[in-house]
Amino acid sequence: MYPCSNVELVAAASESGALGVIQPLTLRFVHGTGLKDGITEIRKLTSKPLALNVLTEKSAKIYQKRMEESVDIALEAGIRFFVTYLGKPGWVVRKVQSLGGIVYHDVTRRSHAQRALEEGVHGLICVNGTAGGHAGDLNLEELWADLDGLKVPKVAAGGISTREGYQKALKLGYDAVQMGTRFIATNECSANPDYKKAILEAHAKDIVKTWRVTGVPLAVIKTPYVESIGTEAGFFARWMLKGRKTKHWVRLFYSLMSLVRLRKMARPGQVSSKDLFQAGQSVEGINRVISVKEVVRDLTGS
């Protein structure tokens, strides 16, 4: 969850009975902390299981060595659960499975899931169209139906912030849920207070998808600024995004720009009228800032 997965938030999630996922790019580019030191700080707050988020998209070759080093550091620290996204996760699977590691990959439709399974992943993070950040196109039920018959664990991701949503996902057949937006509006999250306020005030209808930040659809809260710039990529960028090779170049450019642009939201300070607030349609069920422990308790009833 770039840029909001600070040390205290990740630790609190695991300590409360969920699985805190470490985002190494957040540690480095937002908080100026290396992964090894970050894990050390998290371990001061919890001894519960942790996971690592790993970017495997081709356009991120500049990060490839760093990502490989991150996986090695995590394995050495005893982490055995890995969540991969935007690319081919086979190299992560090969690196971790001999040590008992498990890899779940973000997917938005069956074709993506099949390719991920061919790479050897052990489970799927099923990102539907109501998710924050990089969202899919299908809703919770449609994505479940699309993935029917794939006999691996499936995690519902998108639109869930209440006990009702949690129970609905489990009743459909999902094995667990993944949440991001709900955890931004918590005491432990270091996100800008105005970011949290925007989440509390937003409704599902206020979430739009823009191509102008990372080169793939990104769910954000609709603000006057978002409306003024539009949500479609420019003509030249759209043309490049259609090419098999050029799409990786333009995504790399967008990714580098977004690392700088979005990290401000994870820090207290002045918010500009041109800032972007990543969020999913789960904002509909979020009306107060509470502790991570309360989030988990309210969700599961325990």
Overall shape: globular
Helix run count: 14
CATH topology of the largest domain: TIM Barrel
- Structural domain count: 2
Largest sheet: number of strands, sense, barrel closure: 7 strands, parallel
Helix content: 40-55%
* CATH level 1 class label of the largest domain: Alpha Beta
> SSE order in H/E notation?
HEHHEHEHEHEEHEHEHHEEHHHH
Mean pLDDT equals 86
What is the CA–CA distance across the termini? 25 Å
Tell me the total number of β-strands.
Answer: 10
CATH homology group of the largest domain: Aldolase class I
* SS-derived structural category: alpha/beta
CATH architecture classification of the largest domain: Alpha-Beta Barrel
The radius of gyration over CA amounts to 18 Å
Low-confidence stretches: none
Q: How would you describe the oligomerization state of the chains in this entry?
A: single chain
Question: In terms of topology, how is this protein built?
Answer:
Layout: H1 7-15, E1 20-22, H2 24-30, H3 35-43, E2 50-55, H4 61-76, E3 81-85, H5 90-96, E4 102-107, H6 110-118, E5 123-127, E6 133-134, H7 140-146, E7 154-157, H8 163-172, E8 176-178, H9 181-184, H10 193-201, E9 207-210, E10 218-221, H11 224-229, H12 235-241, H13 246-263, H14 292-300
Parallel strand pairs: 1-2, 2-3, 3-4, 4-5, 5-7, 7-8
Antiparallel strand pairs: 6-10, 9-10
Defining traits:
302 residues, alpha/beta, 2 domains, 7-stranded parallel β-sheet, 3-stranded antiparallel β-sheet, 14 helices, globular
